């Protein structure tokens, strides 16, 4: 297994939200890049599926890698997100990862809006 090094862009409160806006069920198996990996699992199409992680203050990564699939308990697809363009959340703000209707992932915080 290759060694992957992640560097950080400061710290953030560790509040992470994953949301599905695609109209298809998706499964997120695991996420790389964070000091503490957030648990995700199924993001349902019917309820605008969301998953929340409250992991405590940690380093804000330069890159996040999502391993996901359209099939339960699989993660054959991989999306790498450059976090250098995302402002780290502060205070009670959350970091969002959204799978959109265009079937692509994006990351943002309230500071980016």
How would you describe this protein?
The chain contains no helices and ten strands. 23% of the residues are buried. It is globular and about 35 Å long. It has 113 residues and is mainly beta. Strand 3 and strand 4 form a beta hairpin. Helix content is 0%, strand content 47%. The model has no long low-confidence stretch (mean pLDDT 89). The chain starts with 7 loop residues before the first strand and ends with a strand.
What is the element layout, followed by pairings?
Elements lengths: L7 E5 L2 E6 L5 E7 L8 E3 L6 E5 L3 E4 L1 E7 L7 E6 L12 E5 L5 E5 L4
Parallel strand pairs: 2-9
Antiparallel strand pairs: 1-6, 2-5, 3-4, 3-7, 7-8, 9-10
Kindly list the characteristics that best describe this protein.
4-stranded mixed beta sheet, globular, 113 residues
How would you summarize this macromolecular structure in one to three sentences?
This protein has no helices and ten strands. It is an all-beta fold and 113 residues long.
């Amino acid at each position: 297994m290759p060694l992957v090094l992640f560097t950080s862009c400061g710290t953030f409160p560790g509040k992470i939200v994953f949301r599905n806006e695609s109209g298809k069920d998706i499964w997120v198996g695991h996420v790389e890049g964070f000091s503490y990996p957030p648990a995700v699992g199924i993001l349902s199409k019917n309820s605008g599926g969301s998953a929340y992680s409250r992991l405590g203050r940690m380093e804000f990564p330069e890159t996040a890698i999502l391993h996901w699939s359209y099939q339960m308990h699989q993660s054959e697809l991989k999306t790498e997100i450059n976090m250098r363009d995302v402002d780290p959340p502060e205070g009670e703000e959350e970091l969002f990862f959204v799978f959109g209707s265009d079937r692509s992932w994006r990351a943002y915080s309230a500071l980016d809006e």
